[in-house]
Amino acid sequence: MIFSAADDGALALDLLPDWRALLGERADRLELEIGSGHGGFALGFARAQPDRALVAIEQRRKFADELRDRAAQRGHANLVVITGDGRLLAPRLFRAGSLAAVHVHFPDPWWKRRHHRRRLVDDGMSQLLFGLLAPGGLCDFRTDVERYALEAVERLEAIGFENEAGPGGFSDRPEGEIPSTREKRYLATGHPVWRLRLRKPAAGAPAPRHTGAP
What we know:
It catalyses: guanosine(46) in tRNA + S-adenosyl-L-methionine = N(7)-methylguanosine(46) in tRNA + S-adenosyl-L-homocysteine. By secondary structure, the protein is of the alpha/beta class. The chain contains seven helices and nine strands.
């Protein structure tokens, strides 16, 4: 089910819903967060960007329910919280080229080889995110695991993303960037965060390259 923070009501989970009908003009700059956790980023976004909309997908029902309740209490009509697996839901919910940004913050690295298919930056998911973004759209990836960051930057660049920090580079924290609940702790303690800000090439750029890397 889709639950809108605007009215706290349940809507049928339709294939490719009409986001403009649900969110008005905010849907013209629709953004997606996969794995919203405790909701620090989602709530901060909703407060700071009232003229834009965010869809937050969280697999853990308890976290999703709590975030949905907090969003409703604060009157955030520009935040939609969905319970489920982002891998399965994203292609059902969004048309190709329809998202202004995708946010993936501190995903589980799933180190064991047999679990690699669960990673949010495996080939399949990376290609899906690339396809869902509009030309010039942002992929905002953050992790506290250096090895995962190094693997992610190689894979995402190979898919076709352009790195704002240059090939293989990591970005400094931009002024005004909204931290997740977990990142707030790291900012307070000085724990390192590897931050990738990548763009889907603008229309007319060369076609993306695909990788078969494990």
